[in-house]
Amino acid sequence: MTLRPALITFLLASVAALSIGMTAGWLQTPANLMTAIPGSITRPAITLPMIVVGGVLDGINPCAFTLLLLFITALLASVGSGGPESVSAARRRMLINGGAFIGAIFLAYLLLGTGLMQVSSTLAQNHLGARIGALLSILLGLWMLKDYFLPGVGIRLAAPKAIAGRVRGVNASASALTMFGLGALVSLCTVPCSGAVYLAVISLLALQDNFLLSYGYLLVYNVMFILPLVVILLAASTRPGLHRMARWNLHHRDRVKLILGGGVVVLGLAILAVA
């Protein structure tokens, strides 16, 4: 191993060790130091713009983006060429099925987030739930950074090949209910690949006093999360649009992974510092 990969590995491992130490309470954090001062502990504020930006950025993560493009490619491949009316009808059916696919992702992610919020509330003592969620998001973010800086080392963070195979195998004649089921399956199986930002946001929401507001923010986040997917579906519902989207994904997915991974690590460390 040359100097650069060794240095990157050391830095990533150091951040992981620091995060584990902060989560377990082995290292002093600002929150630990302030507990001795009555009334000095403040929870990190979270705002609507933060939720909106986080949801949109998570929606363009390479994992979800690539799977949706595979899904649209498979549907377009099955569009007939028997005439304008048949093509139009097939594309309309494709948009309906694509909407069912995205709707299932929205519902599954919302239910998953609601469940994690409930778990965090039961682990409210010492903010254990928020700290565990922040640690997991940091580790996933470090994995994304590893994929960017050391793409040939270890396992890449990506959707399971079996899921990608199922997505490629769909066709426009399948029912919307089938597409809904596939979307739910895809969303749950790709959580490790696309859930780093979500876990960080849930950890931050778990620290808030107003749980009703937190759940409202969770709903907004998931709407913002599927918004890019809806835009992609509409823009890529024709072959030229699909080709443009595929080229954009090919040229930018590594950079998006770098930005998301770095942002998640910083946010996770900030949560551990105050939780």
What's the helix and strand layout?
Elements: H1 3-24, H2 30-34, H3 48-59, H4 62-77, H5 84-122, H6 128-149, H7 161-168, H8 176-189, H9 191-194, H10 196-206, H11 211-235, H12 239-274
Helix pairs in contact: 1-6, 3-11, 4-12, 5-8, 5-10, 5-11, 6-10, 6-12, 10-11, 10-12
Attribute tags:
275 residues, mainly alpha, 78% helix
Count of distinct strands: 0
What is the terminal separation in angstroms? 37 Å
Overall number of structural domains? 1
Strand content: under 5%
Counting DSSP H or I runs of 4 or more residues, the number of helices is 12
Q: Outline the biggest β-sheet.
A: none
Mean pLDDT: 79
Rounded to an integer in angstroms, the radius of gyration calculated over CA atoms is 21 Å
Structural class: mainly alpha
Q: What is the 3D form?
A: globular
- Which stretches are low in confidence, meaning pLDDT under 50 for 5 or more residues running? 33-41
Helix content: over 70%
What is the N-to-C order of secondary-structure elements (H for helix, E for strand)? HHHHHHHHHHHH
What features would you describe in this structure?
The protein is mostly helical. It is 78% helix and 0% strand. The chain is built from 12 helices and no strands. It starts with a helix and ends with a helix. About 3% of the residues have low confidence.
Concise summary:
The chain has one domain. It is 78% helix and 0% strand. The protein has helices at residues 3-24, 30-34, 48-59, 62-77, 84-122, 128-149, 161-168, 176-189, 191-194, 196-206, 211-235, 239-274.
